[in-house]
Every structure is written in structure tokens, then in C-alpha cells.
Design goal:
The chain is of the alpha/beta class and 198 residues long. It contains six helices and eleven strands. A seven-stranded mixed β-sheet has the order 5-2-1-6-7-11-10, with helices on both faces. Helix 1 links the parallel strand 1 and strand 2. Helix 1 (14-30) packs parallel to helix 5 and helix 1 (14-30) packs across helix 6. The longest helix is centred in the N-terminal third of the chain and has 17 residues, at 14-30. It is globular and about 40 Å long.
């Protein structure tokens, strides 16, 4: 079963990575025989320094950029910090390597722009935060932007819309890697039944 790396970086949007973390780590903790390994990887900066998130939350990663290894799944969240990573060639190469090995490359919100910059979304359907749809369309070649989808899968690439959509994407990932039943068990455990009061 898979090793899952969730990237974090200065300026990352909190729920973009914490939502998938909650889903995927709940899967790992509640079903240890599935042998799922989930970790956060700080991209850029010292792995021993806290990441300053978009809304001022400070978190420590499990490991740093040099220890990325060869994950089976990589999650790229969004946030203001993505701007500085759009021309980060080591990151682009790492994403391409995961994809070339047959792993899943996923994004939440404006993390899709990083996937596009790596050339992974050319000619594919994808989505992102509603405020960045035009930017996504211009970020690669012939990207089919799906404005109304919570998440979009194209082979082993999955992009999610903004912020909370990462939870849906992560549950879909559990379906892909395990089963619908396992995803339902995780959904029940985290009591994810959206019913907003507004």
C-alpha cells in the first residue's frame, strides 16, 4: 500500500493540506493493516523551521525536501506560497518523476498551477479555486478547465477545486487506492457530512 507525501511550504493554505491529511491519516490510523504511510514534507527552507501558513498557523513538517524519497502519492496544496514555486524546477521534476513511476500526482486549489507549470496538465481536464480558473487555463497547453467540478481525475492526476474540495479529493483517492467501502468508513470516522448553515 502507498506512501503518501503531502507538501507544505511557506504561504500554504491551511485546509488545503490539513483536509487531505485528516482523511488520509484517519485511513492510516483506523486501518493499520492497510499499511498506509502519510507524511508532510517541507518544500524549501529548513525542515527544522516551522512553516508559516497563509492564515498564520505554524506547523512543523515530518521531513524536508531532500527526504522526499519516492512517494506513491504526492499532494500539492495551494495558497499564496504557490507563486514562488511555479518556476521551481526541482519540484517540477519531482512531480514528473512520481507520475512517470505510475504514482498519483494530486493538487488542491492553486496547487494545480504547479502541476500545470510542470507540464502535467497539458491536454488534460483539471480544476482549481474559482478565482484562479483563468490562470489555470493559461498555465499550460490545451488545459480543459472544469469550473463546476469539485475534483477532476485524468489517469493518475487528480486536481481539486478550492480549499475544502481537498477533503472530497482525498476520499476519492481512498476509493482509488483501496475501495468505496474503505472510503465510506473513513468518511464516517471523520464525520464528514457537509450541511452548512448558510
Amino acid at each position: 500500500m502507498p506512501s503518501i507525501a503531502i507538501l507544505i511550504f511557506d504561504g500554504v493554505e491551511e485546509l488545503d493540506f490539513v483536509g487531505p491529511w485528516e482523511v488520509l491519516s484517519a485511513w492510516a490510523s483506523q486501518h493499520p493493516t492497510d499499511d498506509v504511510r502519510v507524511s508532510t514534507v517541507r518544500w524549501g527552507g529548513s525542515p527544522h523551521e516551522p512553516v508559516q501558513c497563509a492564515k498564520r498557523l505554524r506547523v512543523l513538517a515530518d521531513r524536508g525536501q531532500p527526504e522526499l524519497g519516492e512517494p506513491d502519492v504526492i499532494v500539492v496544496p495551494g495558497g499564496k506560497g504557490t507563486r514562488a514555486l511555479l518556476k521551481d524546477e526541482p519540484l517540477a521534476e519531482a512531480l514528473r518523476e512520481v507520475h512517470a513511476r505510475g504514482g498519483y500526482v494530486t493538487s488542491v486549489c492553486t496547487g494545480s498551477l504547479i502541476l500545470a507549470a510542470a507540464g502535467l496538465l497539458d491536454g488534460k481536464p483539471a480544476t482549481t479555486h474559482w478565482s484562479t480558473l483563468e490562470h489555470l487555463a493559461a498555465a499550460g497547453e490545451d488545459i480543459e478547465v472544469r469550473a463546476d467540478d469539485r475534483f477532476v481525475q485524468s489517469g493518475r492526476i487528480i486536481t481539486a477545486a478550492g480549499v475544502s474540495a481537498g477533503i472530497d479529493m482525498a476520499l476519492h483517492l481512498v476509493v482509488q487506492l483501496a475501495s468505496v467501502e474503505r472510503a465510506r468508513e473513513v468518511k464516517r470516522y471523520i464525520q464528514y457530512d457537509p450541511a452548512p448553515p448558510v
